[in-house]
Amino acid sequence: MMVIKTMRKKTVEKLETGIPGFDLVSYGGLPKGRNTLICGTAGSGKTIFATQFLAEGIDQYDHPGVFVTFEESPDDIRKNIASLGWNINHWEEEGKWLFVDASPQVAEDTFVLGEYDLGALLARIEYAVRKIGARRVAIDSLDAVFARFSKSAIMRRELLRVARTLKNMGVTSVMTAERSEEYGVLTHSRIEEFVADNVIILRNVLEGEKRRRTIEILKFRGAPHQKGEHPYTIISGEGLIVISLSAIELKQRSSNLRVTSGNPQLDTMCGGGFFRDSIILVSGATGAGKTLMVTEFIAGGIRPGEKCLLFAFEESREQLFRNATGWGVDFEAMESAGNLKVICNYPEIASLEDWLLTIKDVVTEFKPNRVAVDSLSAMERVGSNRAFREFVISLTSFIKHQEIVGLFTNTTPTLTGGTSVTEAHISTLTDSIILLRYVEMYGEMRRGLTVLKMRGSQHDKDIREFTIDGEGMHIGKPFRNIVGILAGNPQHVESTEIDRFKDMFEQT
Amino acid sequence: MDRYILKLFITGQTPRSQYAIRTLRQVCAEELLDRYELVIIDVIEQPQLAEEYKIIATPLLVKEWPPPARRILGDLSDREKLLMLLDFFNA
Prior knowledge:
The complex is a heterodimer. In chain A, a hairpin with a 2-residue loop joins strand 20 and strand 21 (about 445-455). Residues about 1-10 of chain A have low confidence and may be disordered. Chain A folds into 2 domains: about 15-245, P-loop containing nucleotide triphosphate hydrolases (Rossmann fold, 3-Layer(aba) Sandwich), CATH 3.40.50; about 260-505, P-loop containing nucleotide triphosphate hydrolases (Rossmann fold). Chain A is elongated. Chain A has a 9-stranded mixed β-sheet, with helices on both faces. Chain A has a 9-stranded mixed β-sheet with strand order 17-16-18-19-15-20-21-22-23. In chain A, helix 6 packs parallel to helix 8 and helix 13 (about 350-365) packs parallel to helix 14. Chain A contains 16 helices and 25 strands. The longest helix of chain A has 17 residues, at about 150-170. Chain A is an alpha/beta fold. Chain B is globular and about 30 Å long. By secondary structure, chain B is of the alpha+beta class. Chain B starts with a strand and ends in a 6-residue tail after the last helix. Chain B has a single domain (about 5-90), classed as Glutaredoxin (3-Layer(aba) Sandwich). The longest helix of chain B has 18 residues, at about 15-30. Classes of the chains: A alpha/beta, B alpha+beta. Strand 6 of chain A pairs parallel with strand 4 of chain B.
């Protein structure tokens, strides 16, 4: 016991940044009273991170901050940041934000004659920190220092002095540095080797023609943090948001409360309806009846007075509403009554990260009891496989935590069955899977439905035929003399043979 | 004849600062006699002036008058070059 006690290192205290999601992946923020190097390629969001670190500090924690700029003029920064929703001018007037303007001055020529150091910069930073009692300092960017002063050995020593001084003053600081490639050498000027105990990498990688932003905490000396890359996005009016996957806890408050699927026969097949906080995946080929099932699911919720939210990615609003009318469901009336919200859009208009945040925002604001996404597989197009998988995990876990019943549809690539990426990623995350299949019988296309999985409940194991008419979906009898439907290869079996099998089992 | 207005920014009384001050005083005394005004500013004592002049590196000599306005960074170790940069030959 004694040994363990003395072995235990004093963990580094953290300072919450207030940057959404970042404090989760960093286990509480940046190491307090230390320097952290933020490196990334051009356009990766370094300056936004640095600025937001100060802005959230003022906004949420009342921590005054000093911004040292070597590159952009304070005016440019004020303007850029205004677009993210912060008013620096106002904070400057209140004495919460102070610029140390070390950006290049064009007015006068400067000649170099002999040895020099950055003592004046240090004096200015110290002065600024004392003046407003700053708790946070951002320095953007170190490369600009190297670009302006040719003696890089001296600059390294001088920046180390700056870093030490900030540490001694007890302020938590971030410094940005540019790197030339997403993977490889950390920074151009190899600053990380001497300045920072803590290094964060921002990436903006091109993956299958899509940009994907990630943040990685490379090291926090003496402090724990999550490993690996985490997706993040930059939203106008809000700034940088880190999407933390592993922050998701797998604690599902399983509810025994059943809600209707909107179709009485399907409820019976599911053993009495869907569970209230479960996710149901409806998978089938195009035209198999997925959107109908979504429509009934929504109508089934609206009837007892629930609120429903529908994201439609495959059809236009008009088409969707017209189809619903064809099945006897009036979306328009439901929407004007305020019980339904339909969001129709092309998935391509935003990245998966942005979609996730949009969906979260709408759900939080509208507070629906049911959410349907038609189809989830349309989202596959928007990002890489990895990004899509992360999106699905985040979305399902978010919906589960809201005690909402979620219905997602998945379009399979072939008419008669087969699996898709969505199915592979989502099937283990969903509580129920319903398969819709075309069944070819005697030269005729019929439709089949089966409940493949229903977590925590008995369910009908038959593959049943269903028909669609002006009143919706009607589920009928099981296909008895056909095998291989799920494999996409239906084969007819003689009735007598089936009867014989049945008899055999009944006898035993 | 124009009167020279010079400001020398230093950070503390370091050997480098002393060296720059000594060199500058000597050059001015020899070349300009009494036609100059030299103010020495220690940014540790007056950081707000460093802020105002947007100075990050020292020693820094600012020639404010006569034009062209000019900044000379470093400990002024090259006397000939200093004379040239200050345009003393035309004075």
